[in-house]
């Protein structure tokens, strides 16, 4: 069967500043929480490889953008580093302005639409020391930073993304100990989540006031929540998981309001964040033009069977347990489930319950541990498994579009194998492999395949 995508479909990949630029303390950049955390607890990072050790996009952006063109990209997402642009929190770093101007101009010169994120987990240490997302001050600071970016680069950026996966900042930093500042406290987590959505809304409001030519959105990792069975207790478990991990961000971003059921649960358990008068109007002003969807794997849940010990602090997990469904297909090289149809379910949910908001797949990808095992005699990674993975997801996207979904593009995570937080270089995801020592880039088999897909607008 031939799968042809709508004209103008965005083909590309995504990366982020902290994961690709390197130059961690070069060009005037100040430390982020990642630089700080690596300095204080390097053993928590895979292979003790920290954020200074990346694919050096800061120096090699030209070479990389040429490779993007070679493998058929017509669009690419990366992010701006807040700590590079405003190192002391307030003064603009001209070197950073020059760098991002050069990146954006180079992308445009190669016919690649720039999608630019403002925050991809990389809180500047300067703001973290003042409370980070727990502090209302950070909301205003973020909006100022966003406004500066819009004014500097907004004449050329096709699409802005305020945040990447805000729920991961909340889970990692304030619930489950995999991001700095490693707190485990639901009430603080709720405040952080709330402040990020206020910061998002304030940034959208600033963007609208400038009447620039592009669009603005947010990138959410939408994780469909599937119940073990149709028993009411399992259905309730999956409803609540969906509320905490998807709708707590999706509803304010698309509808400008929080789900009432979420507010009810938080009130019942005395976990409401501090809210100020006027916040409702601000959230309503944060409605997006375009939603970026990151999809890796679904969440399968069942009703909680084991009682929570009295005195255990409040967590979303009070309401459900993960369900290891027998027979589910797993990625043997990363341990995550592969469920291609999940991407269709997300798109159809957006069509039916979110006004068919324009969307695109901003990340989807297959992490592979020990990918050097698949290097052929010619030095190329023969990642047929990744081709199958992408093709399987694209088929479901195609079906969703045929059924009326407003999905406009597909970006793989990621372009070149990149540094990934605590996992560093453990899982490789790129279209292009990276030799960390020599910095040599080699297009993988999937990169060559993708070039054809993009040129044919399908497969
Ligand atoms: C996504 C993030 O959630 O997952 C990326 O947006 C991250 O920043 C990617 O690198 C892969 O994560 P991991 O842990 O498998 O390397």
Automatic annotation (TrEMBL):
One of its GO terms (biological process) is carbohydrate catabolic process. GO terms for molecular function: beta-glucosidase activity. InterPro entries: GH, Glyco_hydro_1, Glyco_hydro_1_AS. Keywords: Glycosidase, Hydrolase. The keyword Hydrolase applies. GO terms for cellular component: cytosol. The active site is at residue 363. The keyword Repeat does not apply. It comes from the Bacteria. PANTHER family: 6-PHOSPHO-BETA-GLUCOSIDASE GMUD (PTHR10353:SF139), GLYCOSYL HYDROLASE (PTHR10353). Belongs to the glycosyl hydrolase 1 family. This is Glycoside hydrolase family 1 protein.
């Amino acid at each position: 069967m031939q799968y042809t995508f709508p004209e103008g479909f965005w083909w590309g990949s995504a990366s982020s500043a902290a994961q690709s630029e390197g130059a961690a303390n070069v060009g005037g950049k100040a430390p982020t929480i990642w630089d700080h955390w690596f300095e204080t607890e390097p053993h928590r990072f895979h292979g003790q490889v920290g954020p200074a050790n990346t694919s050096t996009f800061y120096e090699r952006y030209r070479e990389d953008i040429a490779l993007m063109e070679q493998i058929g990209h017509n669009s690419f997402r990366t992010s701006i580093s807040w700590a590079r642009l405003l190192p002391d929190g307030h003064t603009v770093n001209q070197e950073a302005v020059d760098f991002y101007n050069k990146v954006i101009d180079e992308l445009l010169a190669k016919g690649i639409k720039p999608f630019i994120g403002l925050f991809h987990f990389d809180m500047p240490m300067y703001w973290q020391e003042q409370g980070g997302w727990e502090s209302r001050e950070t909301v205003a600071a973020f909006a100022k930073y966003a406004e500066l970016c819009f004014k500097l680069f907004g004449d050329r950026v096709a699409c802005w993304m305020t945040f990447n996966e805000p729920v991961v900042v909340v889970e990692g930093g304030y619930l489950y100990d995999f991001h700095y500042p490693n707190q485990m406290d639901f009430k603080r987590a709720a405040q952080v989540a709330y402040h990020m959505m206020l910061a998002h809304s304030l940034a959208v409001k600033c963007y609208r006031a400038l009447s620039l030519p592009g669009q603005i959105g947010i990138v959410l990792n939408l994780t469909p929540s599937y119940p073990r069975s149709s028993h009411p207790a399992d259905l309730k478990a999956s409803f609540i998981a969906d509320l905490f991990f998807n709708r707590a961000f999706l509803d304010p971003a698309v509808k400008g309001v929080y789900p009432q059921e979420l507010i009810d649960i938080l009130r019942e358990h005395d976990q409401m964040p501090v809210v100020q008068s006027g916040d409702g109007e601000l959230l309503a002003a944060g409605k997006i033009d375009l939603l970026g969807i990151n999809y890796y794997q679904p969440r399968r849940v069942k009703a909680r069977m084991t009682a929570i010990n009295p005195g255990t602090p409040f967590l979303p997990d009070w309401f459900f347990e993960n369900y290891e469904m027998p027979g589910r297909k797993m990625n043997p090289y990363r341990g995550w489930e592969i469920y291609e149809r999940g991407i269709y379910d997300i798109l159809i949910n957006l069509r039916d319950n979110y006004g068919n908001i324009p969307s695109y797949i901003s990340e989807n990808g297959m992490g592979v541990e020990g990918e050097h095992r698949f290097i052929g005699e010619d030095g190329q990674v023969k990642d047929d498994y990744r081709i199958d993975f992408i093709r399987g997801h694209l088929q479901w996207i195609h079906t969703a579009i045929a059924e009326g979904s407003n999905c406009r593009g597909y970006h793989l995570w990621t372009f070149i194998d990149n540094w990934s937080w605590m996992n560093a270089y453990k899982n490789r995801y790129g279209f292009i492999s990276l030799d960390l020592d020599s910095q040599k880039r080699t297009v993988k088999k999937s990169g060559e395949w993708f070039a054809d897909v993009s040129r044919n607008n399908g497969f």
